[in-house]
């Protein structure tokens, strides 16, 4: 789970560097596991642009998602949901 301090810092940074609504790019890295992949993909609506890329050795999978977000709060809420998935690294 994201700490309140981490959420506030992320929110403040997003509000400074982006105007809303805006296309936002999420990136997650984790060891590929079908259940985990499904949970990450389920965080986003079907119309989101989702790209998957395996590491050269195939040990890790990165998922990059572009979505129009309405506010920094919406981005933080999505990261909070993602932080509930074990083994996820967010960038």
SSE layout:
Blueprint: H1 4-17, E1 22-30, H2 34-41, E2 49-54, E3 61-69, H3 72-82, E4 89-90
Antiparallel strand pairs: 1-3, 1-4, 2-3
Helix pairs in contact: 1-3
- Give the topology string: H per helix, E per strand: HEHEEHE
| Class per helix and strand makeup | alpha+beta
CATH topology: Alpha-Beta Plaits
Question: Which oligomerization state do the chains in this entry correspond to?
Answer: single chain
* Low-confidence runs: none
Gap between N and C termini:
15 Å
Classify the beta-strand content into a percent band: 25-35%
Number of helices: 3
Largest sheet composition: 4 strands, antiparallel
Radius of gyration: 13 Å
Tally of DSSP β-strands: 4
General form: globular
Classify the helix fraction into a percent range: 25-40%
Q: CATH architecture, please?
A: 2-Layer Sandwich
Going across the biggest sheet, name each strand in turn: 2-3-1-4
CATH superfamily (homologous) name: ACT domain
């Amino acid at each position: 789970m994201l700490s309140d301090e981490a959420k506030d810092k992320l929110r403040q940074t997003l509000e400074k560097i982006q105007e809303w609504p805006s296309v936002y790019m999420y990136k997650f890295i984790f060891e590929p596991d079908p259940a985990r992949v499904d949970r990450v993909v389920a965080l986003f609506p079907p119309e989101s642009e989702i790209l998957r890329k395996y590491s050269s050795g195939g040990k890790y999978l990165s998922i990059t998602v572009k979505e129009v977000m309405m506010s920094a709060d919406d981005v933080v809420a999505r990261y909070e949901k993602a932080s509930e998935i074990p083994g996820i690294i967010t960038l």
